[in-house]
C-alpha cells in the first residue's frame, strides 16, 4: 500500500498540490528492512541474463514511473539503478522510497547502486531534513529518520557486473580503481575504514570523464578518467565496456550480445 500511495502521488503530482504524509514508523520500518537486504549484498553485484540499467533519477519521479511502465515491472524485469536517486526533481524522497519498496518486494530483481548524491555531505546539502519536515515527519523525529536514511544508502553496492564483460558504475574508473583493478572492487568492504576501500567506494560514485584535448580547468578534487584510460582499464580487466551514470546519452541501447560474449 505504501508503494502504491507513492506511485499515485508521483502520477498525480501538480506543483500547488500537498506533499505526501510520511508516517515515521512506516518509514523507519522500510529503511531497516532495506538496510538488512543491502548489507548482505556484495560490493559488486554479479548478474546474468537480461538486465535493464537505469541512469540517475535525480528526484524526477515522473521519469522513473514512466520508464518502469514502458520497460516493465519486476519480477518480469531485472533492474540495476546507477545511483543518484536524490536531486532537484519534485520527488527526491518519493523516488528513493518507491525503489526501496520494490527492493523489499523483489530483492533479486531490483539492485540499487550508490551514487555521489547518496554521500552524507550531498544528502545534507540537498536538504533532507527539510524534505522530511515538509512531508509531515514530526520535528522531533526528523534527525532519527535522516540519520537512518544516510546509514541505509551507505550500504548500497558500489557497482554491478552483467555477465563477465560489462561493468556498471555510477561514476567510473578513477585512478585508484585503474591501479588496483576489478578484483579490488570485488573485495572492497563498504563499511571499512581502510584508505584503499574508502577511495575505491568514493571513485566508484564520483569519477567523471575528462575529454581528451579539453582545456585544463581548476582542480576541484573530483577523480577523472579519459577515454584512453577507460579503454586500457577494460583491456586489463577483460571487460567489453563500462556502463556509467555520470554521462549524458541521447538514447539507451541493447547490449545483449556483449553480456553473452
From TrEMBL:
Keyword vocabulary terms for this entry: Membrane, Transmembrane, Transmembrane helix
SMART domains per the UniProt record, alphabetical: PP2Ac
Gene3D superfamilies from the UniProt entry: 3.60.21.10
Chain ranges of the Serine/threonine specific protein phosphatases domain: 22-261
GO molecular function: protein serine/threonine phosphatase activity
Domain of life: Eukaryota
SUPFAM superfamilies: Metallo-dependent phosphatases (SSF56300)
InterPro entries the UniProt entry points to: Metallo-depent_PP-like, PP1_catalytic_subunit, Ser/Thr-sp_prot-phosphatase
GO CC term, one of those recorded: cytoplasm
The keyword DNA-binding appears for this protein: no
Listed transmembrane segments: 79-106
Protein name according to UniProt: Serine/threonine specific protein phosphatases domain-containing protein
Species annotation: Ancylostoma ceylanicum
Amino acid at each position: 500500500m505504501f508503494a502504491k500511495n507513492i506511485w499515485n502521488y508521483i502520477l498525480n503530482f501538480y506543483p500547488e498540490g500537498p506533499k505526501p504524509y510520511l508516517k515515521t514508523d512506516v518509514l523507519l520500518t522500510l529503511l531497516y528492512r532495506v538496510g538488512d537486504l543491502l548489507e548482505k549484498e556484495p560490493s559488486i553485484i554479479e548478474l546474468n541474463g537480461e538486465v535493464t540499467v537505469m541512469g540517475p533519477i535525480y528526484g524526477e519521479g515522473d521519469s522513473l514511473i514512466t520508464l518502469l511502465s514502458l520497460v516493465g515491472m519486476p519480477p518480469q524485469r531485472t533492474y540495476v539503478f546507477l545511483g543518484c536517486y536524490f536531486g532537484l526533481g519534485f520527488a527526491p524522497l518519493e523516488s528513493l522510497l518507491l525503489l526501496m519498496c520494490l527492493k523489499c518486494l523483489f530483492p533479486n530483481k531490483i539492485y540499487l547502486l550508490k551514487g555521489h548524491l547518496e554521500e552524507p555531505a550531498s544528502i545534507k546539502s540537498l536538504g533532507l531534513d527539510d524534505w522530511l519536515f515538509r512531508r509531515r515527519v514530526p520535528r522531533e523525529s526528523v534527525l532519527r529518520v535522516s540519520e537512518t536514511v544516510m546509514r541505509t544508502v551507505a550500504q548500497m553496492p558500489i557497482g554491478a557486473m552483467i555477465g563477465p564483460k560489462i561493468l556498471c558504475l555510477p561514476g567510473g574508473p578513477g585512478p585508484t580503481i585503474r591501479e588496483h583493478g576489478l578484483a579490488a572492487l570485488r573485495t572492497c568492504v563498504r563499511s571499512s575504514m581502510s584508505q584503499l576501500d574508502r577511495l575505491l567506494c568514493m571513485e566508484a560514485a564520483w569519477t567523471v570523464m575528462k575529454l581528451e584535448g579539453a582545456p585544463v580547468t581548476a582542480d576541484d578534487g573530483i577523480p577523472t578518467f579519459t577515454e584512453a584510460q577507460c579503454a586500457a582499464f577494460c583491456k586489463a580487466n577483460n571487460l567489453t565496456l563500462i556502463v556509467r551514470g555520470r554521462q549524458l546519452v541521447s538514447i539507451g541501447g541493447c547490449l545483449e550480445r556483449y553480456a553473452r560474449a
